[in-house]
Structures are given as structure tokens and as C-alpha cells.
Specification:
3 helices, five-stranded antiparallel beta sheet, alpha+beta
Length: 174
Amino acid sequence: MSIRPIRLLGDPVLRTPCDPVTRYDDGLARLVADLVDTVQEPGRAGLAANQIGSTLAVFSYNVDGQLGYLINPRIVELDDSDEGLEGCLSIPGLTATRTRSARAVATGLNLEQEEVTVAGTGELARCLQHETDHLRGELFIDGLESAERRRVMRLINAGPIRDGETAQSTGPVD
């Protein structure tokens, strides 16, 4: 379909909880195709529908050769803990240390309304949690520990993030 532009921090759609999908029609199929096309751009791991301006509960992922999407996703299992760098396409140039579960299992539906389960560790686990948060209107910076959040908010409030102001390179971002 097409690669869509990414909405950036400050756009109200990013803070708006997404609506459950109830109509499985051509419009939804186009949205899913756009999410899958857009997440395949280099350096991308995940993409929630509100990051491209839609308020439907859908996200795509592209991690370690696993490409897919979930409609009306829910995290159904979380295990262990993992501290790592995280970034977001909607806050370009910024990474921060965030604690997430080391293993995550998400369920949702596909376009045929069949249940799909995606389980992952490492980057895929982080991606599943990150994108599910987006669909609730939450950004990764909301869950940072207090000192890290203060550091990040100082950078955000100082203006556009420039190269060299990030914690380090994260590779793909969600």
C-alpha cells in the first residue's frame, strides 16, 4: 500500500487511547498494509496505528525476521525483567534506559478475525509491550524511572534532540 509519515511527540493522537476494531473491511485491510509497509523501513521494529494518525487498536512489528501485525492486541503474559535501551519513532533521536519484562506474550486477531498469539524475548518482548502501550495512549517515556525521566524531559524541553544527546544507539526503534 504505502509508507505513511510518523506522528511526533506533541501530536494529540499519540495520547489518545485507540478504539477496538469492530469492522473488518477494506479500510482496515489498507491500514494493516500501511502499518506493515511503514514498519519495514530500515531501523524500525514496531509501529502502532496512532503513530500514523489512526485511532484503531492495531500495530505492526518487524523484529529479527518476524514481520506481522495484531488487531485488538492484549498482553496476556509477562515474565522476568529486562533493563535496556528503548527509543520511539515518535520521539526521534532519543533513547533511554527502561525496564520491561524480558518475555512477553500478546494475543490479538488477524484480518480474518482469527486469534493470533505472538511470544517473544528480548527486542520482540520489548516491542510487544511498547506498541501495546501506544494503543493505550502511553509513550515509553511515561514508564521511565524518576532520574532517567528527569534527564529525558530536560532533553525534550530543551528543544529538538541532536545527535550525541541520546544515551546510546539502540538500533531499531519502536
